[in-house]
Design brief:
heterodimer, A: 429 residues, alpha+beta, D-Maltodextrin-Binding Protein, domain 2, 2 domains, 4-stranded antiparallel β-sheet, 12 strands, 47% helix, 12% strand, B: 297 residues, mainly alpha, MetI-like fold, 72% helix, globular
């Protein structure tokens, strides 16, 4: 208890020292902050803003919050119209949209002493930096990992897979022991693309997208191998076929009845999103983190690892210092962090993680995910263009055609090579 | 007199302001933007004039060609089916039966619910692989169908969602049916005309103005269908339900390619306009107004 009090006291002192300039400057300041999220995030965020305003009575904050749907469209219109809020929650891949050369958001390096950057891991800072400009800071980092329904695997007499081979072997066992409606893993085309990315990087550790040549890193034989691996996953009954998957319509994977009931027994999911997959499972089912599968001799995991989201400051705001205080309050300050909790994932800030660890605010599944990510070799950085909507849809369309038998794996490989490279030439400017 | 005019203008000012702001301005802006490479995330000032590039791109865009084909298929299947169904129900509800008021109201309910997001979500669950339709089919001894996963069936489920909203067309048909003078039916019955003969030689010709009105309304609405494919199938599988409005939306708000999306919007506008002109031009050959019969003084 004493240790916890000391820790919180120390962090409070540090936060107060950082906040000092604003306390001295007491002229009234009006800020706007926007974010997206569910009701739980909204409630916590509003409480955090109230706490911040209590501490800085001269700063008034207007909250602008929505659900996910339509948020990007709204923010895009605001940015284009010059009416963007002072502080915004953004997605990491939006940096490619709004700040191709790093000048789309306020450079946080220009606000020394107001935000404690030392609390953030190097890769978090690196991935938030565009051409030397620190465009934002992430509340948490996220990566795609394998999570399995331990209850269903037990029913099949298996432990959760710890290698690609074990995953492939689980498919026929599921079919034979549980029935044709049971699959060890469920992936939509977006998840599948991400999984194939990881598998490919393990085979050949090189950047998947070369932003200089504006082309895919893997060559034609690699891309064909990826398509063949997809074919194998379906043939081995590891994942549902494209037709079966589409029979549920345009529905979120965690809302699929087979997921809820445990018939689809695995997901390749972001650590920041896995909570909602665990939440929709029927009572009595248990979701667990699996060891990350590695190909024999692989030197990197090929993780899709990135900031889950970011807090950025409007480049044109006249109140950058107050905005920076708010960002620091949410990311590093013990009071702000305690209020916000781990609703946006396990904090990237070390100080914030300590606060939540001390008050028991970390979900074990999410924390286990973070620890696994930290332990895996991840020398290859993800290109933001991999998450570009057009690139993503390009992969989805080709995989869908293959899934419906309109393309052979060889043709799909060629289509990746031709069509995705054409898209990359178009979007990387 | 002058003061009266001013008052009148003041009364319609809010409407005119709304029309100018929310219809005319976007309408003209989209036309100008269709000749540019405007990206939503950039300031408009950064947009370049690109002439007919977007329209040329459209001519070579396989996704657009597919979307156009799917849209035509959807419209040509939906509109005749919906009109026929609405007319049939209106015809039945035109009989003087006990409790007919209840049935008229009941059949209009789907139109009130419409193709809203909630109904589209319900549709998705009803037609899912393990949804209600397949469960009933299995219960009756039939085979389940992959309604949403087979390209051939997926569009059909979207068509059904539009058909379910037949109420407004039905109400217009019902009003039209009730306006047909009963003396014509009495005369035909005395002359020994069969029910079918009466329907095809009296009811249908006198209903043609209403059919024409419903046809125009339905064709415009069908070309603009968005909720169904967006929510139920997301345009899939294999883009078999990727209607043009959905493509326009994705170009503008997913890919931020507003210049191209504007060009697509104008293509859709021109297509709807062509169909409307064809309908109006052909009307003189098949729409029969009472005044042409000489009974209007």
């Amino acid at each position: 208890m004493q240790r916890r009090s000391l820790l919180l006291g120390g962090l409070s002192l540090a936060a107060t020292a950082i906040a000092a300039p604003a306390i001295r400057a007491a002229s009234p300041v009006n800020l706007r902050m926007s974010w997206w999220g569910g009701n739980d995030v909204h409630r916590a965020q509003l409480q955090a803003l109230e706490a911040f305003q209590r501490r800085h009575p001269h700063i008034r904050i207007k909250a602008e919050y929505t659900g996910w749907a339509g948020h990007l469209e709204r923010l895009t219109t605001q940015i284009a119209g010059g009416t963007a809020p002072d502080v915004m929650q953004i997605n990491w891949n939006w940096l490619r949209l709004f700040s191709r050369h790093g000048d789309g958001f306020y450079d946080l390096n220009r606000l020394p002493g107001l935000i404690d950057l030392t609390q953030f891991p190097e890769d978090a800072i690196a991935m938030s930096t565009v051409e030397g400009h620190l465009n934002g800071l992430p509340p948490s980092m996220t990566a795609r990992l394998f999570y399995f329904n331990e209850t269903t695997f037990s029913k099949a007499g298996l432990s959760v897979p710890d290698s690609w081979d074990a995953l492939l072997a689980a498919g026929p066992i599921f079919r034979d022991r549980l029935g044709p409606d049971y699959f060890p893993l469920d992936v939509n085309f977006q998840d599948l693309t991400a999984m194939l990315y990881s598998w490919q990087i393990q085979r050949r550790p090189a950047p998947f997208i070369d932003e200089v040549t504006r082309e895919l890193g893997p060559d034609l034989s690699d891309l064909t191998a990826m398509a063949e691996f997809y074919q194998q996953l379906v043939a081995q009954h590891v994942i549902p076929s494209a037709r079966e998957r589409a029979s549920y319509g345009n529905v979120q994977p965690q809302e699929l009845r087979p997921w809820i009931s445990g018939r689809y027994a695995g997901t390749y999911q972001w650590t920041s999103s896995v909570g909602k997959f665990a939440d929709t499972l029927e009572p009595g089912q248990r979701l667990t983190l699996a060891p990350y599968p590695m190909l024999p001799g692989a030197s990197v995991a090929g993780l899709l690892y990135k900031p889950s989201m970011m807090f950025a400051i409007n480049r044109d705001t006249p109140e950058a210092e107050a905005a920076a205080l708010l960002v620091n309050f949410m990311l590093n300050d013990p009071e702000g962090v305690a209020i916000l909790g781990a609703r946006r994932g396990v904090p990237a800030s070390r100080a914030a993680e300590q606060v939540l660890a001390a008050n028991g605010g970390l979900d074990p599944l999410a924390l286990a995910g973070k620890r696994q990510v930290e332990s895996l070799p991840r020398a290859i950085h993800l290109s933001g263009y991999f998450e570009h909507a057009r690139v993503r849809d390009g992969f989805n369309d080709i995989l869908e055609k293959q899934g419906y038998g309109r393309l052979t794996p060889e043709q799909a490989g060629k289509a990746f090579n031709r069509e995705i490279n054409a898209i990359l030439h178009r979007v990387i400017r | 007199m002058y003061e009266n005019k001013t008052t009148g203008y003041l009364y319609i000012a809010p409407f005119l302001l709304g029309l100018a702001t929310f219809t005319l301005f976007p309408f003209l802006s989209s036309f100008l933007l269709s000749f540019s490479d405007y990206q939503l995330q950039d300031p408009v000032a950064q947009a370049n004039f690109t002439g007919l590039t977007n329209y040329r791109e459209m001519a070579a865009d396989a996704t657009f060609h597919n979307s156009l084909w799917v849209t035509f298929l959807y419209v040509f299947v939906t509109v005749p089916l919906k009109l026929a169904f609405a007319l049939f129900i209106a015809f039945v509800l035109n009989f003087k039966l006990r409790g007919i008021g209840f049935f008229r109201t009941a059949y209009y309910v789907p139109s009130i619910l419409g193709g809203s997001v909630a109904i589209a979500v319900l549709w998705r669950y009803v037609f899912a692989g393990d949804g209600l339709i397949n469960q009933v089919s299995i219960w009756l001894g039939g085979e389940p169908l992959n309604w949403l996963g087979e390209p051939g069936y997926a569009l059909f489920t979207i068509v059904l969602l539009r058909l379910w909203q037949f109420g407004s067309a039905m109400v217009v048909f019902l009003a039209g049916l009730q306006n047909i003078p009963t003396d014509l039916y009495e005369a035909a019955t005395i002359d020994g005309a069969s029910k079918w003969r009466i329907f095809f030689t009296i009811t249908l010709p006198l209903l043609t103005p209403v059919i024409f009105f419903n046809f125009i309304m339905q064709i415009v609405q069908a070309f603009q269908e968005f909720n169904g494919p967006y929510i139920i199938t997301g345009g899939g599988p294999l883009k078999s339900t990727y209607l043009l409005p959905l493509m326009i939306y994705e170009e503008a708000f997913k890919y931020f390619n507003v210049g191209y999306a504007s060009a697509l919007s104008w293509a859709l506008f021109v297509i709807i306009a062509i169909f409307t002109v064809i309908a109006f031009t052909s009307a003189k050959y098949w729409v029969f107004y009472g005044s042409e019969r000489g009974d209007k003084k």
